[in-house]
């Protein structure tokens, strides 16, 4: 390729052709075939696209312990790594607004927790910011 013209000035090379995506035409020979869509593997005896029920995300089948634990003073903010081992266990939470209750945590994220809260005589789904928790204890 000659980058110089008659005046010996360097010339910019012309544009390169861009590769084109394949055109799918399943009716004509010579064209690529349409790729198959992803399908999950079939499990014998189970209809397609169903998931096994997850018992770990529901509330526990029994009530929390009957006692109320003593709150230990917390000088630090609650860290997600500290409360994460309490998932799928009974945990007593004290919130910044003064409320406290038994809970069964099913999720601990970077900024929030969620799970089941004991309310009177039944479990109710709840979620709160980790910043709202003043202290906790796992059982």
Mean pLDDT score? 78
Radius of gyration: 31 Å
Number of strands: 5
**Could you tell me how far the N terminus lies from the C terminus, measured between alpha carbons in angstroms?**
77 Å
Shape type? elongated
CATH class of one domain: Mainly Beta
Structural class estimated from helices and strands: mainly beta
The strands making up the biggest β-sheet line up spatially as: 4-3-2-1-5
**CATH architecture identity of one domain:** Roll
Largest sheet: 5 strands, antiparallel
The unreliable regions are 49-55
CATH-defined topology of one domain: SH3 type barrels
Fraction of residues in H or I helices: under 10%
DSSP summary: helix tally: 1
Q: Would you list the SSEs in sequence order as H and E? A: HEEEEE
SS strand fraction? 25-35%
Question: Main traits of this protein?
Answer:
single chain, 139 residues, mainly beta, SH3 type barrels, 5-stranded antiparallel beta sheet
Would you kindly provide a written description of the structure presented here, covering whatever features stand out?
With 139 residues, the protein is mostly beta strands. The protein has a domain at 82-139: SH3 type barrels. It has 1 helix and 5 strands.
